[in-house]
Write a structure and sequence with these properties.
Length: 378
């Protein structure tokens, strides 16, 4: 079963304590919320990151090896060492943990968790398409990303098959039961093959992902929890779009930006979106943002004097990630017996994985403690 395929003949029936019928199965919101709450309590805290910033990579490995990453480090230490061990342990820990959460859930809750985890699968396919177009061999790809090359089952796509397919069209055919299939085929038909890059394909996948996500969640139950979930998805779309527009303005990208905009945002829509697209430079853009979305403007306001320089884009991304993380936490408090606490945990766990990668890679390249610190989402 593909995570994104809705099962036929689904019905629903109200229940107590957050349980309800979906597709013939009862959702177990209370149970999953309790399990996720326990796991959230074991996430790294701000003071942990401050300690890690002062440690060399071997000490970082020992530190996290005493925490939630022990099992993965012990297993992978037979094959990897140093930075490679840490990178592979992070991938494997994320895979194992998210798989556990997906396994806990039933009914509509399981479907919704599947939609959230599809984001990571989409990024894996994007990376695989980049490798294929860049003529990276399957062997080299597996060597760099072994934790992402798994057996094909209900949670994972055939990444090696995408790399080994005779043509790009054949590679895309392996995604036939996904939201990306038609979008990718349509893009292949319009792109000049000798000059093809992965970016148009990646953009098409992003558009298809959010279109499918909104469509499937909106067609579900019309309860308060789902309405909040939809609101968060639309806020996330706003973040995706402002990232796209800002990058284009800073890099001076010409062309039709509207083709890259994900429809369905919450605040950045209609006249506001049009004004953002037409803004001449970042100063004008932020004047529009100040009235169109005060939340997003406030999240970025400290950077406004600096934006316009390429090096600030990573800081913009960091602030937007932090904004979404805080929004997810606020939403989870509003309706604890729903998908929202799981959403909050997944975002925070992903931030933890990303923060650990930033720290160890920063140390690998001898970046200053302050520079590494500024990239962390805490």
């Amino acid at each position: 079963m593909n995570l994104l395929k809705r099962e036929p003949n689904g019905g629903h029936n109200g229940g107590h304590n957050g349980s309800r019928k979906s597709h013939g199965r009862a959702s177990n919101y209370g149970y999953v919320a309790a399990r996720v709450k326990a796991k959230r309590g074991r996430l790294l805290r701000r003071e942990d990151y401050l300690k890690l910033l002062k440690m060399p990579v071997p000490a970082i490995t020992r530190f996290i090896g005493e925490l939630e990453y022990r099992e993965q480090i012990e297993v992978l230490a037979k094959r990897y060492h140093g930075l490679d061990l840490l990178e592979q342990a992070l991938d494997k820990n994320q895979e194992d943990l998210f798989g556990q959460i997906y396994g806990y859930a039933k009914g509509e809750l399981k479907d919704h968790i599947g939609y959230l985890l599809e984001m990571e699968r989409m990024h894996e396919v994007k990376a695989t398409l980049r490798a294929r177009i860049g003529e990276v061999s399957p062997e080299d790809f597996i060597k760099v990303s072994p934790a992402k090359v798994r057996g094909v089952n209900e949670r994972y796509y055939d990444l090696v098959g995408i790399l080994e397919a005779d043509t790009l069209e054949d590679a895309v055919d392996l995604l036939k039961d996904t939201p990306y299939y038609y979008a990718l085929h349509e893009m292949l038909e319009t792109q000049p093959r000798p000059f093809l890059t992965s970016q148009p394909l990646e953009d098409a996948m992003t558009l298809a992902y959010y279109e499918h996500l909104l469509e499937t969640v909106i067609s579900g139950h019309k309860n308060k929890a789902n309405k909040l979930f939809i609101s968060f998805i639309r806020k996330e779309i706003d973040v995706v779009n402002i990232r796209t527009i800002l990058k284009a303005k800073v890099w001076g990208v010409s062309g039709e930006l509207r083709d890259l905009i994900v429809p369905g945002g919450l605040a950045l829509i209609d006249d506001t979106l049009e004004k953002l697209l037409e803004a001449q430079g970042t100063k004008a853009l932020f004047e529009v943002l100040a009235t169109g979305s005060k939340e997003l403007y406030d999240a970025l306001s400290e950077l406004v004097p600096e934006i316009g320089r390429d090096q600030t884009l990573s800081q913009v991304s960091q602030r937007l990630d932090k904004y979404l993380m805080e929004e997810a936490q606020n939403f989870s408090f509003k309706y604890p017996l729903s998908i929202l606490p799981v959403l909050n945990f997944i975002i925070r766990k992903q931030a933890e994985i990303d923060n650990l990668r930033i720290i160890v890679r920063g140390k690998q390249y001898n970046l200053s403690e302050g520079l590494i610190h500024d990239q962390l989402v805490m």
